[in-house]
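User: Design a sequence. Structure:
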């Protein structure tokens, strides 16, 4: 949609990976609301065009709005309640400890441990203006702890598949010392570090 009007309404879109993290929609040029002569596709995508994501007001799959980028059909998000003992330390100080986390598993990322607000040292958190969006989880807001900027996040209104993490706090495993049932967990290396 752009300016309240559909740019294209198709069941013939292709998902094309132009880089490793997520696909891009290519749509048939002849199905665009306004004619387009730039058929940028070649080979199997000849006659298809890629529209600039950010120049549109909204993208929809069926009647559900898609945020940030098209969903990868090979990515899965599962949120599961747990009774594992989770302790989070930063610079040698315990900043969170819980026995009722929700573990979020997302394809290609380490397990994330979302903790109830009462189990997090909120007196150490400083709210920031940063927000990020995920097509699988929704819009997150962030907090810093001392000099560690945007190290904690939460989803106040997550998308349906991520509802169990609503209002819970999560720390970057890559940037804190995480202990699960008393065992130290090695910091993972991801695209976020």
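Assistant: Done.
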């Amino acid at each position: 949609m752009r300016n309240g009007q559909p740019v294209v309404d198709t069941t013939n879109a292709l998902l094309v990976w132009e880089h490793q993290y997520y696909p891009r929609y290519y749509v048939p040029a002849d199905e665009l609301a306004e004619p387009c002569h730039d058929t940028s596709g070649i080979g199997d995508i000849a006659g298809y065009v890629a529209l600039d994501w950010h120049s549109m007001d909204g993208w929809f799959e069926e009647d559900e709005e898609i945020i940030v980028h098209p969903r990868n059909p090979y990515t899965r998000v599962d949120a599961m309640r747990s009774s594992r003992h989770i302790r989070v330390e930063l610079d040698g100080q315990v900043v969170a400890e819980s026995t009722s986390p929700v573990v979020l598993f997302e394809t290609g990322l380490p397990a994330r441990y979302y903790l109830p607000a009462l189990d997090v040292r909120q007196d150490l958190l400083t709210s920031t203006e940063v927000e990020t969006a995920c097509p699988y989880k929704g819009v997150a807001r962030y907090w810093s702890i001392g000099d560690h900027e945007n190290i904690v996040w939460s989803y106040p209104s997550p998308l349906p598949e991520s509802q169990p993490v609503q209002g819970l706090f999560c720390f970057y495993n890559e940037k804190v010392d995480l202990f699960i049932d008393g065992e130290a967990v090695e910091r993972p290396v991801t695209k976020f570090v």
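The chain has two domains: 14-66, 77-185. The two ends are 35 Å apart (CA to CA).
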